[in-house]
Amino acid sequence: MRADLDIIQQWIKPGSHVLDLGCGDGTLLDFLQNQRQATGFGLEINMDHITSCMAKGVAVIEQNLDTQGLSNFADASFDVVLMTQALQAVRRPDIVLDEMMRLGKEGIVTFPNFAYWRLRWSLMCRGRMPESETLPHKWYDTPNIRLCTFKDFEALCYDKGFRILNRTVVDGYHQDRWLSRLWPNMLGQIAIYRITRGD
Question: Which of 57, 94, 104, 138 meets the CB 3.0–4.6 Å disulfide criterion with 78?
């Protein structure tokens, strides 16, 4: 399991009811079911990933967040709603966050940091949209349509009244480095946030 997923699983209590938005091949949900006795669903649009989920015994629903939203789920129906490396690929991340907090007591979100120093340097020196391990696509074929920084995300949480319970900053290999913690918005490549409603 990827190191960032290992960090996330530590924040999820045994027996939690979990919704994983953009669950990929179901690796995290499979682990949570087997090691944390969690229950829940994954949402995914990639048919290969859906097939992998089903082979693992992970309950998965084919659903596009941009076109279908999450109105098919009742308020407060999950303990935790996850969204790993997918926030930047949806049209309205702000609405998705609202829905996450409507559905779950807590939300866990990960995304690449567009303020990482190598990306800044590349843009300044080359004058072209940067690419990296965490953002490997060209500007014209990227699935990432809403790039942000750690500060952008924290400002959005503040504006919406969400509380940040935990924040971990990791490098492109999903390792926690002291330099990333020292200056996260400049030196961190991937953000991992655990949030809840402020009320």
Answer: 104
